[in-house]
Amino acid sequence: MLTAPQFTSFNPPRRILMGPGPSDVYPQVLAAQAKPTIGHLDPLFIGMMDELKQLLQYAFQTTNPMTIAVSAPGSAGMETCFVNLVEPGEKVIVCRNGVFGERMRQNVERCGGVAVCVDNAWGEPVSPEQVEDTLKQHPDARFLAFVHAETSTGALSDAKALCALATQYDCISIVDAVTSLGGVELRVDEWGIDAIYSGSQKCLSCVPGLSPVSFSEKAVAKIQQRKRPVQSWFLDQSLVMAYWSGQGKRSYHHTAPVNSLYALHEALRLLATEGLEHAWQRHRAMHQLLAKGLTSLGLEFVVAEPYRLPQLNSVYIPAGADDVRLRSTLLNEYNLEIGAGLGELSGRAWRLGLMGYGARRENVALCIQALSEQLASS
Ligand SMILES: Cc1ncc(COP(=O)(O)O)c(C=O)c1O
């Protein structure tokens, strides 16, 4: 018999999260999550899921019936798109301009697909010209996959132009919108996006652990024509959809994360109340304020102005500043979390997030004040 460990309840401090995610969660969303758990096949819960689907369709700007939240984080949304769509031997053009494009390539290869990479430097957007050249060189490509908002660098790619190319060259587009959804313009139907995934913990300001996904008619047809079943039972959309639809008669697939779905419902409800276009505009306005402050401190952005994500601001660490010490001082003395550089930018850049509820004037002011004080003393 092991001795029972005796601990006190975990009491996290209230931090201000200005890193690459998770972002600050709306107080109303935290309150929604604390409501009583009910059965996941309870008719009231099913009614809530129907509303959640409509709210997700609004956030994605789509009428796709196959629009749901995967019961796992953004990485599972990514995997859902690849395992359902890509079959062995199929060619996928994968755009890499940071960490997450490379993860897409790994997903393609694990599905037995053939990845053809289009590489752009870290900090640059995906080049539509290079993508078009590659599509011309590979007329047998079935998919075009890219990251809309590359969280590792803060670069925004032109999803509208890239999806138009996918349509022109008869490819299915697979779009990573983990950091873009709710923070910058994104129009699934108008731009012809076929498969898209996001995350709850960025500009939706919900608790981490859920991944909204949506599939167009063309993507659904591709899934229905598969020669063999999806290798992942859990992520197989044909099974999951019987749970998310079914006109009141749901069949059990897995036990939904009931309270997390309450939280997502509330976060999306707040987004719908604010209005998508207003949320995009708010992110842009707060970014402009932050950029002004950062520039006045002499900090330089990694990404050129036209391609900067408002919700993820990467700046080079100035000479003489101690990366680890400064970030831990901000955390311990200001309760402020900023993000470290990732991959090629590790130790070279900070990533300052302005996501969802976090994109507020007082957060910008605190961040500039903290950086100004700490850079002056380094
Ligand atoms: C662009 C992008 N794609 C995918 C992911 C993976 O999401 P998660 O960490 O929720 O699994 C992230 C997470 O930061 C991301 O920023």
From TrEMBL:
Domain Aminotransferase class V: residue ranges: 36-341
Keywords from the named record: Aminotransferase, Pyridoxal phosphate, Transferase
UniProt cross-references to InterPro entries, sorted A to Z: Aminotrans_V_dom (IPR000192), Aminotrans_V_PyrdxlP_BS (IPR020578), PyrdxlP-dep_Trfase (IPR015424), PyrdxlP-dep_Trfase_major (IPR015421), PyrdxlP-dep_Trfase_small (IPR015422), SP_NH2Trfase/AEP_transaminase (IPR024169)
Any one biological process term the GO annotation gives: glycine biosynthetic process, by transamination of glyoxylate
Entry's Gene Ontology molecular function annotations: alanine-glyoxylate transaminase activity; L-serine-pyruvate transaminase activity
Coiled coil feature spans: none
Pfam family, one: Aminotran_5
Positions of modified residues (N6-(pyridoxal phosphate)lysine): 202
Names of the cofactor(s): pyridoxal 5'-phosphate
Positions annotated to bind substrate: 351
PANTHER family: ALANINE--GLYOXYLATE AMINOTRANSFERASE (PTHR21152:SF40), AMINOTRANSFERASE CLASS V (PTHR21152)
UniProt family annotation: Belongs to the class-V pyridoxal-phosphate-dependent aminotransferase family.
Name by which UniProt lists this protein: Alanine-glyoxylate aminotransferase apoenzyme
Taxonomic path: Bacteria, Pseudomonadati, Pseudomonadota, Gammaproteobacteria, Chromatiales
